[in-house]
Amino acid sequence: MEKLRVRVGKRRTLVIPKLVAERLGIDEGSVIELEVYGDYLVLRPLPTAIDVALRGKKYVKVSLEDIERVSVEEQGRLATGC
């Protein structure tokens, strides 16, 4: 991607160009981490829990049947007080 220039607005706001926002998955309400390295400012969008669940690395495969079985067992345990 080529370099882009943006102007700092009122109250020091930055507007992220649409092309950049779409490429990085930034939308209204996104959380962005800011880091300063010398005279450089690095902005990094932080993934939401939904992003991680849908696109994150998978460590374990769990079926819906497994989830239902554990849920029923837990509900039974809680209902009997054991």
From TrEMBL:
Pfam families per UniProt: MazE_antitoxin (PF04014)
GO molecular function, one term: DNA binding
Endpoints of the signal sequence: none
Origin: domain of life: Archaea
Gene3D superfamilies (UniProt xref): 2.10.260.10
SpoVT-AbrB domain ranges (all copies): 6-51
UniProt-listed NCBIfam families: lp_hng_hel_AbrB (TIGR01439)
Protein name: SpoVT-AbrB domain-containing protein
Naturally occurring in which organism (per UniProt): Pyrobaculum aerophilum (strain ATCC 51768 / DSM 7523 / JCM 9630 / CIP 104966 / NBRC 100827 / IM2)
